[in-house]
Amino acid sequence: MLRNPHFPETFCTEEQLLEELYRQMLKVVRHKLWHKPDAGDVVQEAWVRILENRSSLREQDKLIPWAKTIAANLAYNANRARSKEVICETCENEYNIHGAMSEPELMLELSDLLGCLDPTTRTLLLYKFYYGLKDREIADTLGVPVGTVKARIHRSKARLNAQVHDDSPRT
């Protein structure tokens, strides 16, 4: 018999503890996930992680919070992966819409979009996406904080995305 972590004065079987652990993890994952049908897969992955890392659990009475944290982190990872899939699907859809364009036409459109930006923003985006520099390297080069670089890149990408989707005149 094991002590019930929620009610220390009561005891439960190992099977009851595992069922409670599963219920708690599933509850957390369903709450955190954007795409609810992935919940079972995420909980299953959490079980694997728990079994692989069980030696890192120092206090057995912290099993359920530890498992819930692992499940929540995996749910966040699943959300992040799902958002990347959505971005890739969007890019593929954009490519299918513009699929008839030749590579030179695409380069010309990209050049036009970049030409609409102020020189600092254009340089920032080129450093990041053309030259592949890290945010820290860009910050050091421009003499600004890393947070400023990240914010400017984020705003610039949003502005370009809005321009592409609005099909409005680029000024």
UniProtKB/TrEMBL annotation:
Protein name as it appears in the record: Sigma-70 family RNA polymerase sigma factor
Protein family according to the UniProt entry: Belongs to the sigma-70 factor family. ECF subfamily.
Tagged with keyword DNA-binding: yes
Domain RNA polymerase sigma-70 region: 17-84
Keywords from the UniProt entry: DNA-binding, Sigma factor, Transcription, Transcription regulation
InterPro entries: RNA_pol_sigma-70-like, RNA_pol_sigma-70_dom, RNA_pol_sigma70_r2, RNA_pol_sigma70_r4_t2, RNA_pol_sigma_r2, RNA_pol_sigma_r3/r4-like, WH-like_DNA-bd_sf
Keyword match Nucleus: no
Sequence ranges assigned to domain RNA polymerase sigma factor 70 region 4 type in this UniProt record: 108-160
